């Protein structure tokens, strides 16, 4: 097929999508491959991405798009680890802005013996993303991925910045786009660690949880949780992409190919209910990082520690290291109280640290 034929065929696909055409997984894979590898003019790429998202992509189509992103644009680290290797991440874009939670939750869970290959990025909305927090904690975001692999295999935890493992396709698209596409759903589902076999992925809306877990089932993830947390006294549409200590949390669970839905309250973790103001984001990334350090240094008996610990508990439950959320929360608290979580941060700094950025 010559260049003109390729352009015309892709143009016909755009028109078909606008008219309601539904792609197979293989057709979606090929279309997204051409977008990711910049094989179509930017005008056609943008038209395709917009037409597809506005038509409401199916799970099969999104799975094909994930296949293309994983195959052509995701660099990989390898874990020489037997057993679960977990990721803890949120979509961002949630209506309510909390202290960064997935980063300390990863350290706390790792302190319990769970291998954690945590990915993240700079802020999407709000004050700080995981990359901003880890940078404040002394992690070099520009370090080669080989150092992250060494950290995972040597310390049982690593941090994988999206800026490092996503290649040119993702970076080019995100930099230039100012509208929502399938990539907004697929980003949190990227798998830069080949052995990642369980994940806690918070969502900014309930329907996003449903879609993400369905995609995870299609791509073969054995176990996953997707929480959408709520705050008592506020409209249910104003939630957080974490397990909530302030009200109910809607959970979508994937276990061995089966998807279930249920709701948890703070009491299911063995904690009291806290006010949202107790976990609200502070003004800067540095302040949010200092809140993480306060907990890791032993302040484990307040709302912030409970917030971090119940989310670490979710990873312990998801990975099978705990039988239920309440016992998992006790394990997470012990990780903080014993100093194990702090030691995981120190080990991470040894492998992936920046000499010019000392933690506060």
Radius of gyration: 20 Å
Please give the alpha-carbon distance between the first and last residues. Answer: 58 Å
The shape is globular
Structural domain count = 2
Structural class: alpha/beta
Biggest pleated-sheet summary: 7 strands, mixed
Number of helices: 15
CATH topology title of the largest domain? Pyrimidine Nucleoside Phosphorylase, Chain A, domain 2
Low-confidence stretches: 356-360
Range of strand content: 5-15%
Total strands: 7
Approximate helicity band:
40-55%
- Known CATH architecture of the largest domain: 3-Layer(aba) Sandwich
Helix-strand string:
HHHHEHEHHEHHHEHEEEHHHH
Average of the residue pLDDT scores? 94
CATH superfamily of the largest domain: Nucleoside phosphorylase/phosphoribosyltransferase catalytic domain
Strand order of the largest sheet: 3-2-1-4-5-6-7
What is the CATH C-level name of the largest domain? Alpha Beta
Give structural notes.
This protein has 360 residues and is α/β, with parallel strands linked by helices. The protein has 15 helices and 7 strands. The chain folds into 2 domains: 3-72, Transferase, Pyrimidine Nucleoside Phosphorylase, Chain C (Transferase, Pyrimidine Nucleoside Phosphorylase, Chain A, domain 3), CATH 1.20.970; 85-352, Nucleoside phosphorylase/phosphoribosyltransferase catalytic domain (Pyrimidine Nucleoside Phosphorylase, Chain A, domain 2), CATH 3.40.1030.10. Strand 6 (249-255) and strand 7 form a beta hairpin. 51% of the residues are buried. Belongs to the anthranilate phosphoribosyltransferase family. Anthranilate binds at residue 90.
């Amino acid at each position: 097929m010559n260049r003109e034929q390729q352009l015309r065929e892709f143009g016909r696909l755009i028109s078909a999508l606008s008219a309601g055409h539904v792609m197979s997984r293989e057709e979606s894979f090929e279309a997204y491959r051409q977008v990711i590898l910049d094989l179509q003019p930017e005008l056609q790429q943008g038209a395709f991405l917009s037409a597809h998202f506005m038509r409401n992509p199916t799970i099969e189509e999104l799975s094909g798009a994930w296949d293309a992103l994983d195959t052509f644009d995701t660099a990989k680290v390898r874990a020489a680890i037997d057993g679960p290797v977990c990721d803890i991440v949120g979509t961002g874009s949630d209506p309510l802005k909390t202290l960064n939670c997935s980063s300390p939750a990863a350290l706390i869970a790792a302190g319990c013996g769970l291998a954690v290959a945590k990915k993240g990025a700079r802020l999407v909305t709000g004050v700080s993303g995981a990359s901003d927090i880890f940078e404040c904690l002394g992690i070099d975001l520009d370090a080669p991925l080989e150092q992250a692999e060494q950290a995972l295999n040597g310390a049982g935890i690593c941090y994988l910045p999206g800026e490092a493992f996503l290649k040119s396709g993702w970076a080019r698209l995100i930099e230039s786009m100012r509208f929502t596409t399938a990539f907004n759903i697929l980003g949190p589902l990227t798998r830069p660690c080949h052995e990642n076999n369980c994940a806690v992925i918070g969502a900014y809306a309930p329907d996003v949880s449903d879609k993400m877990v369905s995609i995870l089932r299609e791509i073969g993830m054995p176990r996953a949780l997707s929480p959408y947390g709520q705050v008592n006294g506020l409209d249910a549409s104003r939630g957080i992409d974490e397990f909530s200590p302030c009200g109910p949390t809607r959970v979508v669970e994937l276990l061995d190919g089966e998807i279930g839905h249920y709701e948890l309250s703070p009491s299911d973790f063995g904690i009291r209910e806290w006010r949202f103001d107790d976990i609200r984001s502070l003004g800067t990334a540095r302040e949010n990082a200092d809140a993480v350090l306060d907990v890791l240094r032993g302040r484990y008996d307040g709302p912030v520690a409970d917030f971090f610990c119940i989310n670490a508990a979710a990873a312990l439950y998801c990975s099978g290291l705990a039988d239920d959320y309440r016992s998992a929360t006790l394990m997470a608290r012990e990780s903080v109280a014993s100093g194990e979580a702090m030691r995981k941060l120190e080990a991470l700094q040894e492998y992936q640290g920046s000499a010019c950025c000392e933690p506060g």
